[in-house]
Amino acid sequence: MKPRWNILYRGPLSSCNYACGYCPFAKTRNSIAELRDDTRRLGSFVDWIEAQAPREIGVLFTPWGEALIHRAYQQALLRLGGMPHVRRAAIQTNLACGWKWLDAADRERVALWCTYHPTETTVERFAAKIHILHRMGIRHSVGAVGVKEHFPQIERLRGLLPESTYLWINAFKKHPRYYQPEQLEFLTAIDPHFPVNLRQHPSRGKSCRAGQSSFTVDGDGTARRCHFIDAPLGNIHDDGFESRLVERSCPNAICGCHIGYVHLDELKQDEIYGDGLLERIPAGWPERGA
Ligand code: SF4
Ligand code: SF4
Predict the structure, then answer these.
(1) Which of 165, 183, 234, 275 has CB 3.0 to 4.6 Å from 244, enough for a Cys bridge?
(2) If you take atom 4 of ligand 2, which residue's CA is the nearest one?
(3) Count of helix runs (H) and strand runs (E) in the chain
(4) Residues within a 6 A CB radius of ligand 1
C-alpha cells in the first residue's frame, strides 16, 4: 500500500474578518475577483486530492487569513470528508463562521483547529461555539497564544470549555526569556505539551518527514516540504511528482512551529498525537494527555 500523505494547503486568500494586533492580515479584504480566483484554485486542489484515491491522505488548510467564513472552504471540507481515502480534512479557523453547514460533515474525517483571539471575541461567546461543536460531535482542538496579558482569559476559557476539549497554548517567542517560572507552570498546567512548543528545536541535518510523507501545496499547485522552506519540490500536477517525495534532513537551523516540528522524527510527536496530528488533538485525550 502507498504511504499516507499529510498535506497542508494554503491558497492566495489572505483576508480576515478579525483585527488581531499581532497579525498582518487583520481586517484585510480580498476583492470579489481575488476570492473567485482563490475558489477556483481550491477546487483544483480538491479535484487533485480526489484523483489520488486510493492513497490515504490527510489535509490541513492553513490559510493566511480566515477561510472558513467563505462557503467555498466549508464545501471543500465537506467534499473532502466524503472521500473514503481522505482520513482527515481539517482547517485552522477563528470560528467566526456559522455551524449549520457542519450538519453534513463526516464526524470521523472533518476536524477544526480553533484559535481563540482574546481581543476579537469574548471568551463566553467563543466557548459557547465550542460547546456547539462538542454537542454536534465535530472533532476539534482549541488554542490561544500564551501572551501574558491574556492569561486571565486563557484560564477562564479552560474553565468554560468541555472537559474533553484539548486546549493548546502557542508560546509567545518574540522575546527570549519572556516567561517567569510560575508563568511556565501556569501554561503547562493548562497544556501539558506546552514545553515542546516553547522550544526552538534545533533541526539542521535532522531527519524530518516534511518532504516525504508530508508537504505543503499553494494555490498554483506548487509543493514545498513545509511552510518554512521556500524551495519548491515540484508541482502536484506534474507527471512523476511522487518521485520528488524522498527522505531528507532539514536544512534550517531551527523549527519552532507545531505544524513543522511534529514531523521531526526525533521528537516522536506522531506517538503523542497519533490520528489527531493534523488538527492537534493528542491521542486518547483527555485520558492520556491530562
Ligand atoms: S483571526 Fe487569525 S488571520 Fe485573522 S487577524 Fe486574527 S490572527 Fe490574523
Ligand atoms: S524540521 Fe521544520 S523546517 Fe525542517 S523540514 Fe521539518 S518542518 Fe521543515
Answers:
(1) 234
(2) 250
(3) 8, 13
(4) 16, 18-20, 23, 25-26, 65-66, 94, 117
Q: How far apart are CA 232 and CA 226, in angstroms?
A: 10
- The CATH code belonging to domain 5-276 is 3.20.20.70
Residue 213 Cα to ligand 2 middle (Å): 12
pLDDT tens figures, 52-65: 999 999 999 999 99
In this predicted structure, the answer to whether residue 23 has a pLDDT above a threshold of 90 is: no
250 pLDDT above the threshold of 50: yes
Residue-level pLDDT at 287: 55
Calculate what percentage of the chain has a pLDDT beyond 90.
Answer: 91
| C-alpha cell, 175 | 522575546
pTM for the model: 0.96
Has residue 290 got a pLDDT over 50?
A: no
**Pair 172, 146: CB distance under 8 Å:** yes
Does residue 136 contact residue 110 with C-beta atoms inside 8 Å?
Answer: no
**Residue from 8, 62, 228 whose mutation best tests the ligand 2 pocket (most atoms within 8 A of CB):** 228
- Each domain of the chain, given as residue ranges in start order, spans 5-276
Contact 228, 19 (CB under 8 A): no
Phi, psi of 151 (to 5 degrees): -55, -45
**Residue the block writes with cell 476579537:** 120
Q: Which of 94, 97, 120, 150 to mutate to test the pocket of ligand 1 (most atoms within 8 A of CB)?
A: 94
